[in-house]
C-alpha cells in the first residue's frame, strides 16, 4: 500500500494498543513504525529490475520482523523504562504495526516476499495499492484521537475493525467476480489455467481480468454493478523473448510477476512489461532489456532500464462510468484507455 496508508494504519494500531495512554506521541511512533519496512526503497541493487523485484524483501519478511520487533522493544525498555510501557506492551505494539504492514502489502497486486530469505512472492490482489475507502477512516480515527484523548483509543479500535471488514469485503467481491469469470471463460472457450483478477484504481467494485495463454493473453473488465454478466475479452499478442541468452534479471522478473509478462518491440527496443500492475498502456513496470544494432540484431544492454510508459489517471472518468455498469464502453475502454494502440 501507499506510504500514507501504512503510516495511518501504524498510528491507528498504536492508538488502539495504547488505550487510555493514547496521545500524539504514541500516534507518531506508530506512524513511524508503519513506514519503517518501506525504507528498503533507498537501497540500490544495481538496475531498475532488481530495484523493483527486491523491494518488499527482507524488510517485509514474517521470519525477520518478529525478532526485529522484539529487539526494538527491548532497546526502548532498556533506555526508557516505564511502568505502563513495559516490554510486553511495547512489543505487542511494535510487532502488531510491523506485521500488519507486510500483511496489508500482501493483499495488493505487487507481491510481497513474506518468507524471505526463502523464494516466493505472495499476493491476494483484493485491494488496490491506493484505496480511499480503506485509508480515510484510518485518518479520521487519528484526527479524533489527537483531539479526544478519552475516546481516541476506542475510535482507533473501532476503525481497525471496520478496515479489516473492508479487506474481507474486497476478498468476497473478488471471489464473486472469479465465479463470473470462470463461467465466461468456459462459455467463450478461453483458457483457464493462469487468470488474474485485480481491482482497478481506487475501488473494489470494478475488476480487471487478465487471462494468459502460450501465445496470447486476454483482458477484460467486470463490475459488481453490471446487469449483463457477459465479459468482453480483448485478445493481445503475448510476444516472446527473442534472444538465446536469458539474464538473471529476466528470471527474477518472471518469478516476481508469476510470468504475467508481455514482450514487444518499440523503436528498436525490446520492452518487457509486467501485465499485473496498472492497465495496459498505463502499466507501472516496463523495462528496456535490449536494443537492435546496425545489423538489426538484438544486443542486451548492460543493465535493464525503466521504460518511460505513461502512468497517469486521465481516464478515471471513463473508468467511473464503467464501474457504474456501463458495459457499452467496454470495447472502446479496453482498446484505448487500456492502450495497445501501438
UniProtKB/TrEMBL annotation:
Q: Which domain of life is it from?
A: Bacteria
Q: Which InterPro entries is this protein grouped with? A: Transcription_regulator, YdjM-like
The GO molecular function terms of this record are: hydrolase activity
Give me the segments passing through the membrane.
58-77, 89-107, 127-147, 159-177
- Keywords of the record: Hydrolase, Membrane, Transmembrane, Transmembrane helix
Q: What is this protein called?
A: Hydrolase
Q: Which organism is it from?
A: Vibrio inusitatus NBRC 102082
Amino acid at each position: 500500500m501507499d506510504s500514507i496508508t501504512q503510516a495511518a494504519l501504524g498510528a491507528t494500531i498504536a492508538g488502539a494498543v495504547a488505550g487510555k495512554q493514547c496521545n500524539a506521541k504514541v500516534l507518531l511512533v506508530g506512524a513511524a513504525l508503519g513506514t519503517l519496512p518501506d525504507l528498503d526503497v533507498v537501497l540500490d541493487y544495481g538496475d531498475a529490475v532488481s530495484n523493483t523485484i527486491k523491494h518488499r524483501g527482507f524488510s517485509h519478511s514474517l521470519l525477520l520482523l518478529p525478532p526485529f520487533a522484539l529487539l526494538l522493544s527491548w532497546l526502548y525498555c532498556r533506555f526508557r523504562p516505564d511502568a505502563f510501557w513495559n516490554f510486553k506492551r511495547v512489543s505487542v505494539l511494535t510487532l502488531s504495526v510491523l506485521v500488519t504492514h507486510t500483511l496489508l502489502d500482501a493483499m495488493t497486486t505487487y507481491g510481497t516476499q513474506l518468507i524471505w530469505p526463502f523464494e516466493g512472492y505472495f499476493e491476494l490482489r483484493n485491494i488496490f495499492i491506493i484505496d480511499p475507502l480503506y485509508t480515510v477512516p484510518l485518518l479520521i480515527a487519528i484526527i479524533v484521537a489527537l483531539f479526544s484523548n478519552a475516546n481516541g483509543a476506542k475510535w482507533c479500535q473501532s476503525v481497525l475493525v471496520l478496515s479489516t471488514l473492508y479487506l474481507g469485503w474486497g476478498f468476497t467481491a473478488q471471489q464473486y467476480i472469479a465465479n463470473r469469470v470462470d463461467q465466461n471463460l468456459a462459455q467463450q472457450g478461453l483458457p483457464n489455467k493462469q487468470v488474474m483478477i485485480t481491482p482497478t484504481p481506487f475501488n473494489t467494485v470494478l475488476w480487471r481480468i487478465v487471462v494468459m495463454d502460450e501465445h496470447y493473453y486476454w483482458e477484460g473488465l467486470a463490475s459488481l454493478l453490471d446487469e449483463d454478466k457477459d465479459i468482453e475479452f480483448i485478445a493481445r499478442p503475448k510476444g516472446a523473448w527473442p534472444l538465446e541468452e536469458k539474464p538473471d534479471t529476466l528470471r527474477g522478473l518472471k518469478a516476481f510477476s508469476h510470468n504475467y509478462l508481455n514482450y514487444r518491440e518499440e523503436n528498436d527496443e525490446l520492452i518487457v512489461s509486467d501485465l499485473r500492475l496498472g492497465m495496459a498502456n498505463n502499466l507501472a513496470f516496463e523495462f528496456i532489456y535490449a536494443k537492435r544494432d546496425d545489423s538489426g540484431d538484438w544486443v542486451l544492454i548492460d543493465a535493464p532500464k525503466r521504460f518511460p510508459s505513461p502512468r497517469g489517471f486521465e481516464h478515471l472518468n471513463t473508468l467511473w462510468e464503467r464501474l457504474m455498469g456501463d458495459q457499452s464502453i467496454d470495447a472502446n475502454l479496453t482498446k484505448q484507455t487500456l492502450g495497445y494502440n501501438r
